[in-house]
Design goal:
Blueprint (H helix, E strand, L loop, with lengths): L7 H23 L4 E3 L3 E4 L3 E4 L1 H9 L6 H18 L2 H6 L2 H13 L14 H16 L3 H5 L1 H11 L3 H16 L3 H6 L1 H9 L5 E5 L9 H5 L14 E3 L9 H5 L5 E5 L1
The structure holds iron/sulfur cluster (2 copies).
Length: 262
């Protein structure tokens, strides 16, 4: 496969991620109306909302009544990701992914990284529960106070302050402390998308007859545990933690992996 082919989804993902940030930026600087707000709750084309299910869950947990427009915005998001494209928010939309992918890339190049800290990838699900408990106790959306996604969008629009430091901490944590540490273990936003994505239509499919068990896919996958069938049997990668990033597909010289709808 050509070098360009090895990065086609990666390049496309970066274009999508940067364009979304530009649209938020343009709203504040030029009055564009494509995307207003941030990735927790955005008004699209001045007509309807898209809302992050985890942010809205926290707002509901404070006892606040959420407007019907926002509820519809959550329903659209849950249907789009949960039924169609799975946890693609993480690899195609979320700007933090650019930072954590960079840390993972540098680790693969031999920079950084102790390999000894072990943390269950289920930690993110416990953080979902903890965030909701803290929200009820504090009466404010607890995770939103530190949510790096909001910090990045605000940083791009208004300039980086403390958000830049938070991103640097995440980058160093992933680089030096735990491989795929933040997005692959801790982030409750990605965790919730994982929980709703198991029965999505768009999945990666492995044709094991073509697979030479080189394991190149496992080297680049940010959720390597989902590739357990590689080298063993054909099938779909159905675990909700797969971000549909396409990295495994584009690095597979055997063309044993592909996206599959249904
Ligand atoms: S895990 Fe969280 S921070 Fe990482 S890409 Fe997904 S939503 Fe963004
Ligand atoms: S299995 Fe493939 S598409 Fe899914 S997260 Fe891993 S590299 Fe990305």
């Amino acid at each position: 496969m050509s070098k360009i082919g090895n990065y086609k989804f990666l390049v496309l993902r970066r274009i999508v991620q940067i364009c979304i940030l530009l649209l938020f930026w343009g709203t504040n600087h030029f009055g564009w109306t494509v995307l207003k707000g941030n990735l927790s709750s955005a008004k699209v084309l001045d007509r309807f909302y898209l809302a992050d299910p985890f942010a809205v869950l926290q707002i509901l947990a404070t006892g606040t009544i959420v407007s019907f427009d926002i509820i519809i915005g959550v329903v659209i998001v849950v249907i789009f990701y949960g039924l169609f494209v799975g946890r693609s928010f993480c690899s195609w939309v979320c700007p933090v992914n650019i930072v954590t992918d960079m840390a993972a890339y540098l680790r693969r190049k031999g920079l950084g990284g102790n390999k000894y800290l072990k943390l269950t990838r289920s930690a993110r699900y416990y953080i979902i529960i903890l965030s909701l408990i803290m929200t009820v106790i504090l009466g404010v959306a607890a995770y939103e106070i530190i949510n790096p996604i909001g910090f990045v969008v605000r940083g791009v629009v208004f300039g980086f302050g403390i958000g830049g430091t938070l991103l640097l901490v995440i980058f160093l944590f992933d680089l030096l402390v735990l491989k795929n540490g933040f997005c692959g273990h801790l982030c409750p936003v990605g965790g919730l998308y994982s929980l709703i994505s198991r029965y999505r239509l768009l999945k990666v499919r492995l044709d094991n007859d073509k697979c030479s068990s080189c394991m190149d896919c496992k080297v680049v996958c940010p959720e390597v545990q989902v590739l357990g069938i590689v080298g063993k049997k054909s099938g779909n990668i159905s675990q909700g933690e797969c971000t549909n990033c396409g990295r495994c597909i584009e690095v597979c010289e055997d063309k044993a992996l592909r996206f599959k709808l249904f």
